[in-house]
């Protein structure tokens, strides 16, 4: 027999890890307790037109860089050096990533992860529940915008995803790059 209960939790910031403990007490007084870091990751159901323009995202929750992540740059010089916003949305067939990144020194090249790019890991279940995942890199490569899959659940199998829609836009003289 499966029983479900819903508990309201107030004041949880989206995208920020929060320590949580849950204790369940059964009718026979047995208890189960779990403690872990959880986060609320609201992903809006909304199709995005992949065209290098960030539109129709005003009411969608976003990740703010670097505030909602880990900045590991040794010589980070503030928002003009690296900052931005990332939105995740989906429809029945696709997961969409939209981002605007401010970076004074934009570089391109191969391998993508050594240059300006976005890396996205996707796994089934809760964070840390599975060790198998797919990792995608989105970047402006020497051959144009690309999505590269570096890992997948069956193991490393590097490939450019030629059927994926991708736009990476950086206008000359500007310090912002748009990824879709």
Write up what this structure looks like.
This protein is mostly beta strands and 180 residues long. The protein contains no helices and 12 strands. It has strands at residues 18-25, 31-38, 44-45, 63-65, 83-90, 95-102, 117-122, 134-141, 144-152, 155-160, 168-169, 176-179. Strands 3, 4, 5, 6, 11 and 12 form a 6-stranded mixed β-sheet that branches. Strands 7-8-9-10 form a 4-stranded antiparallel β-sheet, with no helix packed on it. A two-stranded antiparallel ribbon has the order 1-2. The protein is globular and about 70 Å long. The mean pLDDT is 82.
How would you briefly describe this protein structure?
This protein has strands spanning 18-25, 31-38, 44-45, 63-65, 83-90, 95-102, 117-122, 134-141, 144-152, 155-160, 168-169, 176-179. Helices cover 0% and strands 40% of the residues.
Describe the SSE topology.
Blueprint: E1 18-25, E2 31-38, E3 44-45, E4 63-65, E5 83-90, E6 95-102, E7 117-122, E8 134-141, E9 144-152, E10 155-160, E11 168-169, E12 176-179
Parallel strand pairs: 3-5
Antiparallel strand pairs: 1-2, 4-5, 5-6, 6-12, 7-8, 8-9, 9-10, 11-12
């Amino acid at each position: 027999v499966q029983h479900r209960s819903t508990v309201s939790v107030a004041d949880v910031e989206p995208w920020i890890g929060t320590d949580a403990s849950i204790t369940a007490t059964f009718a026979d007084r047995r208890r189960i307790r779990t403690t872990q870091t959880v986060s609320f990751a609201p992903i809006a159901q909304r199709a995005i037109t992949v065209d290098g323009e960030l539109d129709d995202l005003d009411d969608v929750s976003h990740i703010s860089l670097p505030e909602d992540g880990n900045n590991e740059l040794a010589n980070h010089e503030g928002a003009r050096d690296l900052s931005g916003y990332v939105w995740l949305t989906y429809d029945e067939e696709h997961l969409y990533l939209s981002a605007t990144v401010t970076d004074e020194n934009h570089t391109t090249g191969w391998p993508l992860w050594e240059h300006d790019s976005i890396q996205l890991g996707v796994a089934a279940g809760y964070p840390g529940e599975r060790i198998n995942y797919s990792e995608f890199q989105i970047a402006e490569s020497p051959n144009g915008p690309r999505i590269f899959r570096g890992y997948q659940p069956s193991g490393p199998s590097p490939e450019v995803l030629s059927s994926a829609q991708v736009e990476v836009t950086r206008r000359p003289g500007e310090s912002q790059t748009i990824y879709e």
